[in-house]
Request: fold
Amino acid sequence: MDVPTADATPTRPLAMSDVAARAGVSHQTVSRVINRHPNVAVATRARVLAAIEELGYRPNGPARALATGSTRTIGLATANISQYGPAQTMVGLEHAAREAGYFLSVSVLDDTSARTLTEAIDRLAAQSLDAIIALGTHDEAVRALRQVHTAVPLIAVLAGADGHDPAVWVDQEAGAALATRHLLELGHRTVHHVAGPAGFVEAAARASSWRAELEAVGAPLPSVLRGDWGPASGHAAGRELVARRRGGEPVTAVFVANDQMAFGLLNAFHEAGLRVPDDVSVVGFDNVPEAPYSIPPLTTVRQDFAELGRRGVQLVLGLLGGEQARPRPVAPQLLVRATTAPPARGRGRGEG
Reply:
């Protein structure tokens, strides 16, 4: 049988049988390699992949979907991709899907309302996908996910343990506990908190854990300041804390619900003449790329978005294989840098 070559113009489209002939294997073996089946010898897999590369063969997607019942495509419904967390989660999911031989079809929402999310999931479900992943960061969206029913597996990411089941998530409570406990163990009498906006699952989880840590040791519970995840709101919160210090309130440690707000807070403290960490210690959340390069470098809580994406795709593949997976949350990590230190004796009341 004559096999078309990459240099010659074939008289017909390349077929899987051409790859099989070039590699000296069966049609079924080529199919197993293309679909990443594990039961293929390493040497055989390498020979088939070499034949695919030499011939320039590209599998026929629609034909493969008809033959296997799978489109090798996962849908993703997400909003707020301008924010670091959702954006990095999408990157992690795309990378993990690609590694598993899947394509990620993304639907970016204009807002986080239940109606918008439900409509996006309906649109994705109409595309004959193998599964759908939804990023549920807002309370309304999480509630909506509990009511959505699809013909394919639907999982949630970032919704937290009390959201849609099945789901994968970073343990927000554990991260906030790490931040608050770090400041208390340094010797600070209490820890102030700049929370994220109302209605966001992560903001509520971090604030709840901060409060629980203070209550566990009997520390005073300061009133919460609230931002919108952006640096301008962190700057405003910083100015409010400066005013509280000038009014006599002992403000020596602050846990900020994300790094962007923490950067604004640091700027406000600098403008007021407060030294970090000599006068006030600060901890952020997320570990954005700029965190090690702020002045001083920011102590923060790292979320492993690559691992979150890997577990999300792993959960999808398990469900497609008929498994009843119960994934554990991704553990956060405290990265101690230069914005935290023990409180200076006699400071925290009226300076600045």
Observations:
- The CA atoms of residues 143 and 302 lie 27 Å apart.
- Residues 84-99 form the longest helix (16 residues).
- The radius of gyration is 26 Å.
- The first strand starts at residue 73 and ends at 78.
